[in-house]
Amino acid sequence: MQKLLGAWGKLVSGNAANGLLQLAIFAIAAQALELAALGVIILIQAYVRVVDGLLNFQSVNVLTNFMADAQEKAGPDRLRGLFKAGLFVDFGTAVFATLVALLCLPLADQLFGFGEDWLWFAAAYCLVILTRTFGAIEAGLRCFDRFGAISLRPVTASSTILFASLIVWVTSGTAQTLLIVWLCAEALANIAFLIWSMLTLRREGLAQLKGANANEAIQGSRNFWQMMWQTNFTYGLRIFSQEGDVLVVGALLGEAAAALLKAAKNLAALIGQFGAPLHRASSVPIARFVAVGETGRAFGFALKSSLGVAALGLIGTATMLVLTPFVLTTAFGPEFEPAYWIVIGLMLAKVLYLAGAALPPMMLALDIAKQFTTMILLGNIAFFGVLFALISPLGLVATVFAHLAFEAVWAIYGWSVTAGKARKAATLP
To answer: How many structural domains are present in the chain?
Structure first.
C-alpha cells in the first residue's frame, strides 16, 4: 500500500497540475473569444475525442496486465515481444482513427454545424490523433514504476498549449488560429514525450525490439486479442458518454450551451483527477496479486483504495462549493455564472466515479472483460436515456442527471460482479 500511495501521489500531483493548467487554458480562450466561437472549438474537440476514443485502440490497460505477469513469471524476451505488439496496435489504430475522423467530418458538420469556415481547420485538428499513441509506452513505464514520467506528459502538453494560447490572446488571434495553435502545441509535446519515453524504456531493458517476437508473446498471453478488443471497445464507449453530452448539447441547445457545459466539466474534472492516477498506479499490484493467487487481497486492495479517493473527492467538492463562483465569473467571465449548479452536480457524479476507480484493472486482472463491457454499455444506456429524456424540459441540468445515472450503474454493477468473481476465485483450490 505504501508503494501504491507513492505512485498515486506522483500521478495526482501531475494530474492536479494538469487540471489547473487546463482551467487556465480554458480561461484564456473564454476571455479571448465570444461564447459561440468558443463553443465551435469545443464541439470540434469533442468530435475528435469521440472518434479517437472509439477507434484509436491504445493498448495500455491490457498490456500492463500481461507485462506485469511476464515480469513475474516469464522473462525479458516475452516482455519485449508484448511491448512490440502494443506499439503496432497503438500506431496502426491511430492512423485508422485519423482517416475515419477526416472522412466523417462532412457528416459531423451537418449534425453539429461547425460551418464552412471551420471545415479545413477541423480537418487539420483531426491529425492530432496520430500523436496520441501512448498505450505501450505507458504500460512499460507503469511496469518499471516510472509513474513520475507518466505524469509529465499531460503537464508538458498543457504547459505548451497554455503558452501558445497566451500568444494568441495577446496578439488578438482568431478562433481558427487558436485551434491550430492548440493542435501544433499538443502534437509537438506528444512527440517529444514519445521520444523521451522510448529512450527511458531502452535504459530499463526494453531494447532490441526489431528482433523481439511479438507473435510468440501474444500466443503466450491468454485471450490477448479478445481482451484487447473488448477493453478498447469498452473504453471507447466510456469516451462516448464523456464527450457525447457536449455534442448532444451543441446540436440541440447551441454552441454557447456547449461552451457552458465544457466550463462546468473542466471544473468538475478537478475532482476526477484523483481517479485516473489510482487506476494507473493500482493496475500493476492488482495484476501481481492475482498472478500469485491472492485474489481476495487484490479485491480488498482495490475496494479500500477506491473508497479512499472517493472520500477525498467529497472533501474537494465541499471546497469547490465556495471557490466555483469566483472561478466562473472572474476567470471565465460573467456569462459563465449560470453553470454553477452544473459544476456541483458533475462533481458529485465524479465522486461516484471515484468509488469505482480501481474497478477497471481489477476486472481486467480477473479476466472478466465481458462484464466490464456490459457495465459500460449499461451505463451508456442509462446516460443517454436520461439525457434525451430530460434535455428538453431541463436544458443543461439534464447532463448532471445523465452523469449521475452512468456513475451509479458503474459503481453498483461493477463492484457486485467483481466481488462475486473474486469470492469464487478465492474458494478454488
So the answer is: 1
